[in-house]
Amino acid sequence: MLESIQSMCLHVVFILFTILIYQVFFNERDEERRKVTSKYYLLMLIILVFTMSQPVVYSEIYKYDFKSVAIILSFLYGGKRVGFSSFLVLLLMAYFTDQNLAVLLGNYMVLCLLLLPITRLFHRYGIKGKVTVISLFYSLIPITRGISLLIKGDEQELFFELSSSLIVLATLIAVVHLIENMKEQIEMRQELVRTEKMNVVSQLAASVAHEIRNPMTSVRGFMQLMQKEELTKEQQMYISISIEELDRAQEIINQYLALAKPQTDQYEIIDLTSTIQQSIDVMHSYAILNSIHISQNVEPSLKIEGLKLEIQQVLINIIKNAIEAIKSKGEIKIIAYHDMSGYICIKIKDNGVGMSTDQLKKLGSPYYSTKEKGTGLGLTVCHQIVKQMGGRITIHSELKKGTSFTIKLPSK
């Protein structure tokens, strides 16, 4: 038994070392990990092949390996496409290593189907919740195996089964901690870069916005007076265009000022459910003009602390971006609910043109926009507003498939 335990520890070291190599050398986003061409999927296959080709032999009848770790991690962090692809490789390896293909097919098909809802639940929690979810889920495997061994009366094998299950569970928990801690560090670095950019923009806004806005207001006033004079149609058109451009510049300056003047001292408890509905109502006509349907599934009595006008600004801006991304004949889905970690999630998903990985990395930065006449400040302001309210915005997108914005805000 001692040799078997030592062999299992070797498997643990190999798995942890492989994950560590992935974390150090490959900085993949969540969307990239969900592709079968990802480095993450490749490393899951390496773990799967190693553990199945080097099983821990306890007796002539019983052999153990860590293939369940690779399958579980494939689903949790790679999604169903990577998960089921790993499952197919498992069956292929079982065929070449003379394992019982029918038994593996039945057992692991059930495991994969159970992992689909577990994966969705897993990502709703913080790191402690994730560890709890995976511990409760994995405990089903030794329990079912233990019952089977008790029926057979093999008590010695039962002890080894429990010991090996504890080692596998400890490995899973260690891997979850490694991946989650690295994700947290990456997010912290991104937030630090974003904060530095925001500070630069805020200082610029505070120093020049007022000085620019005052002469622009005077110029606009004189142009409005000129419109009352007898002018040709061409001259009237030129003045109208000039006023429109001045108004656009004025809006950009207002966005700069919104970055420079946080108003956290005026926060109050607001009804988020009604605020979402009002924002949808405001954008309803704009969506109809573009032949776009807005569907919603919003829980009642959602409440947050903040400024109603600011959160409306965030919602309207994102919905407007979604409409413009679709252009015509599409659908926008808006979902809002309490998650398990004490936050309220608002998801705004469209089936528009989507964005590439490079575009997604830059999105939300000042001066970057995917629109021809955009400044990038609208989404920058949205990030700033949500951050001041103790929340965050995450964005997922695929080219030609659409974009999903998720706003998480502390619940009250």
From TrEMBL:
GO molecular function, one term: phosphorelay sensor kinase activity
Keyword Glycosyltransferase annotated: no
Protein name, entry field: histidine kinase
Gene3D superfamilies: 1.10.287.130, Histidine kinase-like ATPase, C-terminal domain (3.30.565.10)
Record EC number: 2.7.13.3
Domain Histidine kinase: 207-412
Coiled-coil ranges (or none): none
PROSITE patterns, per the entry: HIS_KIN (PS50109)
CDD domains: HisKA
